[in-house]
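#struct-help
A.M.: can someone run this one for me? Single chain, 404 residues.
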Amino acid sequence: MISGFKVEGFKSLSAASIELGAFNVFIGANGSGKSNLLEAIGVMGAAAFGSVEPEPLRYRGVRLGVPALYKSSFRGRSFRRIITLEATAPGAVYRLGLDNPIDNPSARWKISSESLEDDGRLVVSRSPRGCNLYDSKGRPERITPEPDQTVARLALARRDNAVSARGLLLDLLDFAIYSPTTPVLRGVATDEVFRDPLGLSGGGLPEALKQLTDLSGGKLGPFDLDDVWEMIEWADQMTAVPTSQVPLSPAVKTTPTVLRFRDRFMRKERNTLSAYDASEGALYVLFLLALVAHPGTPRVFAIDNFDQALHPRLAQTLTRLISRQVATNELPQVLATTHNPLVLDGLDLTNPAIRLFAVDRDQQGVTQVRRVEVTPELMAEAESGLGLSRLWVMGRLGGVPRLL
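D.P.: on it. Structure tokens below:
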């Protein structure tokens, strides 16, 4: 699990630092920098893989951009040439410095600095003066890496005992930002970035649910199907079947396997429908449950716009169900952004594994990230009937637009 993350000089993040739990929710106005924070972790994941270039970034859900848009450039402040990133886990720290000239950019970013520590001992040390890999006894080996290639994975291949550092690097390598879209969930659009078992836009949902669903046991992975049907009120059955087994117009081009639902209110002879005709809210619920439940999903991932297509009360119930599951097992680790106030009412902030962050931009446009912690004052307001959703809308938590 990634316990902490720091970033300097990336987009609107001049300098930001967060301490993460297992389930993390970020609230803030549109354009406050929530997605920038997720993308900064994605950039570090691409670097940990070996290089920061379009394909590794795309694979992690990072919007592709030129250096002039990636590097912070605030009015009245000196220009920062280097983007610095730092990820921590219990017993491990990974640091990076990235550069790419604005006037003559390269497809690959240069690695200006890199260091990896395991239990306080260096595994990698790299700067413009040179690069060293360290063995288990701390003895350095001087190497000359390619300027646009990281060496952390190479160093770990030579170190059997760097358990903490290896775990941190694996979390970064597999990190992804998911943003499901309705056409892909319906099976009528192609997922541009497919990952096994689920694509970043929702591709592969029927197959993933087929693997997770146990009808005889009444389970969808760790979740009770009864809880699922309470959230999807109009249905009482869902299976993944070949397209030929659902009533679908021949003019609709879809995937070979689709979801088939049974509408509990309709007549038996006419109560089946496919994902193409099902409510988009049901598809988003199933996607999020599958993402959390499937053992093949990344150990650390983000969901941008967690509340997409969900009724506020449905979003609250789903948040409560998923956050409890994640907090109990601490795998996977989830980072989610939302604009839906009732998502907050699904969070138990007395559990340290569940955390809420307010994201704002100051008068200079710099993104500020602050954890909303449980205080005696917050508890007193909650006891008086003011839930987190109302406190957020009232502006008491931060992360709101400055509207007249």
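A.M.: thanks! The mean pLDDT is 95.
D.P.: also worth noting: Residues 4-22+32-175+356-372+383-393 form one domain.
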